[in-house]
Amino acid sequence: MKKFANNTIIVTGAGSGLGRASALQLAREGAALALVDLDASALEDSRAQILEAAPAAELLLIVADVADENSAKNYVARTVERFGRIDGFFNNAGIEGKQAVTEDYDCQMFHKVIDINLNGVFYGMKHVLQVMKKQGFGAIVNTASVGGIRGIGNQSGYAASKHGVVGLTRNSGVEYGQYGITINAIAPGAIMTPMVEGSLKQIGGDNWEAVGAEFVSVNPMKRFGKPEEVANLVSFLLSSEATFINAAVIPIDGGQSYKY
């Protein structure tokens, strides 16, 4: 019996990075998936990769803007309509924004990052929790960041949004544990995803790989993490193996957040 047989899991930001890697892992482990992303073509690419790895996977693709509450309400409703339940929710969609010190940080960019990374996480939780509370079970994993548990510099919007995700996770975990629902957050560090690559290119341009090498040189493990390593943690937290882990924020960063 596969770990997520007969389970339905929503994954936001499923078109790339941690969302795609986690969706692949969850599908291999038997989950039926609602894949949510703003980029329709990226969702189709994820579908193709998932079906290659898990040909029997049941997939529902939903193009949605997580920063819009009605879109969040809709992707939850469509998931329930299709599958009848929501066992797990990887509340993952997010953006980095631009690199700038606080005094130079663009206000419109700040609001955009908050809308997607923080408001989007809240909207998803709000509507998924209504379903899970009625069911009397469920597991939610929010994507925070090491930037949500310490300062990282030059990313006011991102750091503020991820600190907010940490607060939402801890607060809601306290509220909903009594209903058989666990709510946790992961705090990835430098994981080599398209978003991290984009960040390095903002800093280093054509020399971004050298910037990346310098960046990981201070990590205790001297390397970038892999999306698949994060997917393993997400899978564990969404599973029946983690039913007494609640309101936790778990770094997955090679030890970097403990070094500084």
From TrEMBL:
It comes from Pseudomonas linyingensis. One of its GO terms (molecular function) is oxidoreductase activity. The keyword Oxidoreductase applies. It comes from the Bacteria. Keywords: NAD, Oxidoreductase. This is NAD(P)-dependent dehydrogenase, short-chain alcohol dehydrogenase family. Gene3D superfamilies: NAD(P)-binding Rossmann-like Domain. Belongs to the short-chain dehydrogenases/reductases (SDR) family. The keyword Metal-binding does not apply. SUPFAM superfamilies: NAD(P)-binding Rossmann-fold domains. It holds the Pfam family adh_short_C2. Residues 7-189 form the Ketoreductase domain.
